[in-house]
Design a protein that fits this description.
230 residues; mainly alpha; Ferritin; 5 helices; binds fe (ii) ion
Length: 230
């Protein structure tokens, strides 16, 4: 796609310039989406103060990264197209699942964020190569600043993944203990039927018959055996 600026002098540079502008735009859309995703994740992270703080810091960094990309597009003579960002594919971040609140939403969010950081690292390396090929070395400092931030974020995740996972299990264990304690508190202490935590409850023959009708598809073993003989 030709740009408003003077065309590059060679076909190679022209091809590189076109790819550079396209990738700057796509990366801008990627960063905007990353900001929205990270902001939505913060509410999941109240029990993970260090992760919350690092994510908050990276949201600030990512806003600046988006501004650097806008400046890069301006330097390429192509800033007006950013309005079309929302229509562009951003390579499928695979992060839709974290928008829900599944039981392990934090672990899914961290895995998706790690994937995004590595996607961004590859993307900024590509942009650096394209800037060189397109004869736009003035774009390098901004792109290198961002690349260092993405690498630092990816490294942080790698160094903290085990601790985050352990924290998740500790929280779940505390919830299990609290649940078991509530169950024990609700049963009279002299009741022999109180089960140990984690034990499979025994069927209670003395309990009154269920008031709900038997499920129509429930079959006796004999009936099942008869069907197998058919
Ligand atoms: Fe990032």
């Amino acid at each position: 796609m030709p740009t408003a600026q003077m065309p590059p002098s060679t076909a190679f540079e022209a091809a590189a310039h076109e790819a550079l502008v396209s990738n700057l735009r796509n990366t801008h859309a990627l960063e905007k989406q990353a900001i929205a995703v990270m902001e939505s994740q913060l509410k999941l992270l109240t029990d993970y103060p260090e992760l919350h703080a690092r994510m908050t810091e990276h949201i600030v960094e990512t806003r600046e990264q988006a501004r650097r990309l806008e400046a890069g597009l301006e330097a390429c003579g192509d800033s007006a197209s950013l309005a079309r960002d929302t229509l562009l594919s951003v390579m499928g971040l695979g992060q839709s699942s974290i928008q829900g609140f599944s039981d392990d939403a934090v672990l899914k969010a961290v895995a998706a964020d790690m994937m995004t950081e590595h996607l961004e690292i590859a993307t900024y390396r590509t942009l650096l190569a394209l800037a060189d090929m397109a004869g736009k070395p003035e774009l390098r400092p901004r792109l290198e600043d961002t690349l260092r931030e993405e690498e630092a974020m990816a490294t942080w995740f790698e160094q903290n993944l085990d601790a985050i996972t352990r924290r998740f299990v500790e929280i779940k264990a505390a919830e299990l203990q609290a649940h078991a304690a509530r169950r024990n508190d609700s049963v009279p202490p002299d009741d022999d039927s109180v089960a140990e935590p984690g034990a499979t409850p025994e069927p209670d023959d003395s309990a009154p018959a269920p008031q709900t009708p038997r499920h129509p598809e429930t079959k006796t073993p004999a009936a099942g055996a008869a069907r197998r003989d058919e």
